[in-house]
Amino acid sequence: MRVLIVEDDDILRDGLKVGLALAGFTTDAVATRESADAALAAGSFDAVVLDLMLPDGSGTDVLKKLRDARDDTPVLLLTARDTVADRVSGLDMGADDYLGKPFDLDEVAARLRALARRSVGRSTALIEWASIRLDPARQSVEKSGTPVRLSRREYAVLQALMSQPGAIFSKTTLEDKLYGWQEEVESNAVEVHIHHLRNKLGPGLIETVRGIGYRLGGDN
Amino acid sequence: MRSIRARLFVILLVTTGLMWLSATLWIFFSTRAEVEQVLDARLMEAAKMVSSLVVNQEIDPDRPAQTKAKIPVLDHPHYDRQLSCQIWSLDGTLIGKSESAPETTLSAHATGLSETVINGETWRVYAVENAELGVRVLVGDNLRIRDRLVNDVVKGLLFPALLIIPLLATLIWLSVGRGLAPLRKLAGDLAARDASDLHPINESATPSEISPVLGALNGLFGRVAGARQREQNFIAFAAHELRTPLAGLKTQAQVALASNDAEIREKALGQIVAGVDRTGRLVRQLLDIASVEASETTPPAAEVNAGDMLASIRSELLGHAGRAVTVVIDLGLFELRARVNADLLRLAARNLMENALHHSPAGGTIRCSLETDEGNVAIAINDDGPGIPPEEMPHVTERFFRGRFKAAIGSGLGLSIAELALDHAGAMLRLQNRATGGLSAMIILPNRLIA
Question: Is A127-216 assigned to CATH 3.40.50.720?
Answer without folding.
Answer: no
